[in-house]
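Consider the following assembly input.
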Amino acid sequence: MSTSSRFAVAVHVLTLMAWAEEESLKSDHVAESVNTNPVVIRRMLCELAESKLVVSQTGSMGGSRLARQPEDITLLDIYQAVESRGVFALHRHPPNPDCPVGVNIGSVLNEVLDEVDSAVESVLANITLKDAVGRLKPCVRTSGAKTVGVAGMRNLSATAVTKRKNGKEHTLSARN
Amino acid sequence: MSTSSRFAVAVHVLTLMAWAEEESLKSDHVAESVNTNPVVIRRMLCELAESKLVVSQTGSMGGSRLARQPEDITLLDIYQAVESRGVFALHRHPPNPDCPVGVNIGSVLNEVLDEVDSAVESVLANITLKDAVGRLKPCVRTSGAKTVGVAGMRNLSATAVTKRKNGKEHTLSARN
DNA sequence: GCAAACTGTAACTATATTGGTTACAGAAGA
DNA sequence: TCTTCTGTAACCAATATAGTTACAGTTTGC
């Protein structure tokens, strides 16, 4: 269905920020974690800032951080910020209005797709960023996170960023 | 999200067949209702036949019809037949395995996306093709449907098939 | 047997969306 | 003023879907 990873990346970015607590993160740093280009991240951060989920600061010592506490940001907020259209699309071109089915199928489908969208939204509304951080493996952030964790990731770039050849074989799961 | 109208078109096609009852429909006829090319319809009918939702007959007097009764086909069956991947995709490239968040975010997301997929599927599982036909405006099929309805649509092609220039303005709703 | 009416399918093009990349203007700290 | 950031434009690449033409093969009915 969705050929886009926008929601997954947005959740990743914001989870990283929640995990980093008050620390302001650079787009280069986030991009390293997501394994993509910093501009892709900055584009997404602009969208997230428009939806008031993050605040960014230009200039030296700038960066981005969450605009609210992790427990006050739900996955629905993130979904709405980066995935504008509903789960399914309707016909690309309108059906034949002179066919008794064609002229009516749109409203039937709209009812169904609204039900589907509501179901998705109610799942996402019940998960906060705080929950997401909590679901990361417990060993990740026990104590002294700011030093062990975020700072500890800084010097990765030369060593272990996965190379992107063979993209398909490296995707996270059978979903892609 | 989904840039595809595959699910919408598949529901349209099968609703048309349910509405036509036992009558076998030609791909040209279906394409006229959907307002697309017959080959697009035949491709989709092949997928639906693989999932045992329709049966097709080649040759003169051929065509396609439902393989089961409308009350025994759910929208979930249709969804699974034409939309293989889940609602959301994961990262296009795997995140940085040396970032404590990157290495764990995949399993967190998979949990969430499974919940979302289940919610969608449970909505779709509770709607049958018979329901969909019933939701078409009641005036559509009151009595003598086979003669008034399906046959009555046959001679449309010259008159009122919406032209496809200005595609965007003509889509069914704000979804697209 | 043969023509007509169908489906199934290959091959190609068109279109749209997303993601990746380079480049650069402008902001802000040192 | 130099450096380090964000914001953003412009472009290319990759992918998925849809539209189109063409044709082989099947079935019906004369």
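The first strand of chain A starts at residue 54 and ends at 57. Ask yourself how this observation constrains the way the partners meet.
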